[in-house]
């Protein structure tokens, strides 16, 4: 298949409009859309084709409440490192859509999968986790193409969350994601609009 300018333009639009969503509508996501997102993750690259990502869709209200409490405790702790105006700016940010997002995904990396037979990770075992991140990014772009927003919640006690979800000991938490319809569509990242941090250009160093 020869890809065309139209393909490149569509991909650029998806990349440009991909946002780390924090404000969700509560209406459900069509199960057919979720099936397509699962299939998109099947196309993600992984070291040795190990496919180490393991996913829990968290639906139980009590478990969701535990995740929210985990976030709130971690967020309170994280806020203490900021002072003065930066602390005020931090407190104004809405850093999770946990209460509104209809879909919660806890995404783990299996640390010793049989698949792949160890190829490509003998000297860099962290490639397993990188593979999971690649699968997450694939999901993120596919979701944007479906007009579904994704929010990555990183302010969490990972060990406590793993225990709360009763995840196997050889899984490590890579991401906790919220999925749903975004309240608004915006090509400007929240952290730009709130003057938290602008982009810096990617530079390639030729050596």
In words, what does this structure look like?
The protein has 207 residues and is of the alpha+beta class. The chain contains 7 helices and 4 strands, in the order ααβααβαβαβα. The chain has helices spanning 5-17, 31-41, 61-79, 84-92, 127-145, 158-164, 190-193; strands at 53-57, 103-110, 149-153, 171-180. It has a 4-stranded antiparallel sheet with strand order 1-2-4-3, sandwiched between helices. The longest helix has 19 residues, at 61-79. It is globular and about 50 Å long. The mean pLDDT is 91.
- What gap, in angstroms, lies between the N and C termini? 34 Å
Count of helical stretches: 7
Apparent shape: globular
Number of strand segments? 4
The share of residues in extended strands comes to 5-15%
State mean pLDDT (0 to 100 scale). Answer: 91
* Estimated structural class: alpha+beta
Radius of gyration: 18 Å
Low-confidence stretches: none
- Helical residue percent band: 25-40%
- In the sheet with the most strands, the strands line up as 1-2-4-3
Biggest β-sheet: count, sense, barrel? 4 strands, antiparallel
Succession of helices and strands: HHEHHEHEHEH
